[in-house]
Amino acid sequence: MNLKITKNKQEANIITHDGKFHPDDVFSTVFLSKYIENPCLFRTGVGKVEDTNAIVYDVGFGKFDHHGQDAKKRPNTNLKYCSFGLLWTEFGRDYLQKNNYEYVNELYTAIEETLVKQIDGIDNGIFPEIKAEYNLLDLDKIIDMFNPTWDETVDTDINFYKACETAEIIFDNVVRTEYSKIKATMKVLSKIDTVKDNILILDEYLPYQHAVFTSTNPKAKEIKVIILPSNRGGYCIKPITISEDSKELLVNFPKEYCGLHDEELIKVSGIKTARFVHASGFLGCTESLEDAIELAKKTL
């Protein structure tokens, strides 16, 4: 990780609070360590931070702190910015541009929605209600586990650095994943004009849900089945769901096909290269594109 932690305040170009750390100061540090040159961090006591040209965050009641009475809220919401949210708003687009990403505005927003707003909520005491028969090990708890326990006597800077190493992996993977999704969305959108007989055929295996359900192209409304190459060979036939977040299918394979494989499916369907139709009906596979189209038409 590209970060030095110093005990000399005058040496630092980024400053945050010392003691117990949270996702906000950890992810803020990770982001700044990737944004500025030669990042050198000083962790200070709580209070005003004066006589410094460093970027000060999550402490000091300055531009990138959110603990004062004038803490900013996100537009049209009751969600307050955390320090990471303030830093991302200020520098996020520039960071993406400097790293030569395409679709900067779309990627900026995707990272904000996936990661930044979650930390806004966590650090301002807003937690989602989880109804499950198990304890959720969420981002807040994962970072907290790097803090020294009550019976440990250690330099918290060491633990903070370890937390940042883990947070950097998470940050990098969020950026990588969201960027990949956006590139896939752009490719799918470019294919929507080719929809024929309620079927969209893609040239490569791509995540398509977001593109299909957010497209303003009228032909997107015609799509009921997607055909795309399988990463195991052959072709996948996938009925779309009724909405982007739903599991309910818009159309279904014939019931007598569901759960059948190979010769049994070929016999029932009459499709020569049919491989299988999943028992729940969300996926079918064939060897050839021609047969994939035939299976899709039977689904319709």
Structural features, described:
The protein has eight helices and nine strands. It has 300 residues and is α/β, with parallel strands linked by helices. Helix 1 runs parallel beside helix 2, helix 1 crosses helix 5 and helix 2 packs antiparallel against helix 3. The mean pLDDT is 95.
How much of the sequence lies in strands comes to 5-15%
Gyration radius from CA atoms, angstroms: 25 Å
N-to-C terminal Cα separation, in Å? 53 Å
Q: Give the helix tally.
A: 8
Q: Helix/strand-derived class?
A: alpha/beta
Query: Whole-number average pLDDT?
Result: 95
Helix content estimate = 25-40%
Low-confidence stretches at least 5 residues in length (pLDDT < 50)? none
Number-wise, the strands total 9
Q: Largest sheet, described in full? A: 5 strands, mixed
Task: Based on Cα principal axes, name the global outline.
Answer: elongated
Q: Reading side by side through the largest sheet, how are the strands ordered?
A: 5-6-7-9-8
What is the succession of H and E elements? EEHEEHHHHEHEEHEEH
Task: Give a brief outline of the structure.
This protein is of the alpha/beta class. 38% of the residues lie in helices and 11% in strands.
